[in-house]
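Listing 4. Sequential folding, example run.
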Amino acid sequence: MKLKIAIQGIKGSNHHQVAKDYFGDHIDLVECLSFDELVMQTLTGRADKAVMAIENSIAGSIIPNYALVFQNNLHIIGEHYLNIHHNLMVLRGQKFEDIEEVHSHPMALLQCKEFLKSYPHIKLVEAVDTAETAQQIQNKQLKHIAAIAPKAAAELYDLEIIASEIQTITNNSTRFIILKTKNKELPQDQINKASIRFITDHKRGSLAAVLNVMSDCNLNLTKIQSLPVIERPWKYAFFVDVTFEEYQHFSKAKALLEIMSEEFKILGEYKNGRI
């Protein structure tokens, strides 16, 4: 029986590529046009697991997705890093000078900002997905409109790439997390990374004390992101990623952080995708 994997977007998208890289080709895609829908498909069991973009090396964090993971009690069971390649594509026969609009996901438009600045007459239009835009151009035979999407989308929807690798920075990578409604995917000896959320009190040095505990327990902090706690004005929660060589180091830190924090939750324990 094939695994049902929820992705944001459709076939040919970067989420689709990550699903194939992580799970292999023997999967059924559950295509979602928003991250909210992706979460719902996972919670209702229509998808076994989900792939969600969480941060990009150029554009930074996708902040709402942190809240989605926490609020819906999802568990991070893995991660995958994908090098991002953006290409400008059109209907076959169209030329660069024919383009009046460029459609793509907001993150893709942002990551190609320097290239697009050279063509101020072209209107930029935000869309829900890179590959979905490419599909629409082919299905509706849209002239004078180009899409920014992966090479796979051009091949899948028979479009012509008229400009390749148009991202601002060549070394452009996006981190994707793998989500499930339950944890316990790996034995402890294979776990060397964790994502946690905590809230500290407003006393001076509270956050510094927490970070010192992480350092003392041999944890390497690789990411810290603060988000406001909506129901408690001017209160902030910290989302943190840590790596470690031995699980017992993380276990010791967990015990201390549970005592020191007003709120503490483990969002996931998994294998570092960059090793």
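-- end of first protein; second protein begins --
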Amino acid sequence: MSNRATSGMTRTDERIAILQQQLAQAQKLTALGELASTVTHEFNNVLMTIINYAKMGLRHKEEATRDKAFDKILAAGERAATITNSVLGMARNRSDSFEPTDVAAIIKETLILVEREMRKYRVSVETQIQQVPPANAIGNQIQQVLLNLLINARQATPEGGRILIGLSHDATNDTVDLMVRDTGSGIPADKLQRIFDPFFSTKQGPDGSGKGGTGLGLSTCRNIIEHHRGRIRVESSVGVGTCFTIKLPVYRKPAPIITATGIPQAYPAAAFSHP
């Protein structure tokens, strides 16, 4: 191969690498936008509840009415505290390192963020959470995937529909399995094959809540799960619904490496020396 051809391939590889970095950044910004939109919407609902019942308490002199207003304000304040704790939990999971991860806790925190939106669109959420070992994962990235799948499921599910979240341990493959199933419109077979392609979307644009339509969400999900050496698959039937299943490796504590001296590498040789 000539030097010119080799140089051309090198430049092409460099351009591909740059485009991949730009795509990854776009995917990250999209995920952050989804999260910010969800949290902002939740806090707006809480504040409106507090303001409206505070006005009601000021207008009415009856003790029973004021007590009702105070109870609603207290409930809204507790809701705000719950959302704050959930967001703080996500902030604590900002590590980019693989570590033992409690997927059940991630499900709980994420459901807090989308609870009000699910109620608004009259979509019920059920969970089937089994006791599972920790996954070897980056917690905030798995939460990003789950949030995206739940938003997609809500958008695809009509009022009165249902979303099921399952968590189980596949002992044969030694994986933690996370499932999100909806009773939505389903995805046609010709579109299902492209569902994880960047910029491909089954939506025409953002819905009434301002979410969806970029085509980056599921592409991001696949990239994250593959980075975890896991697998993500989708099954769908038009008019029945869609099911996403994620398989994450179980966390296993690395065995200590035995050196030529017979001392585990995790412990410095000096710690075993004698004066």
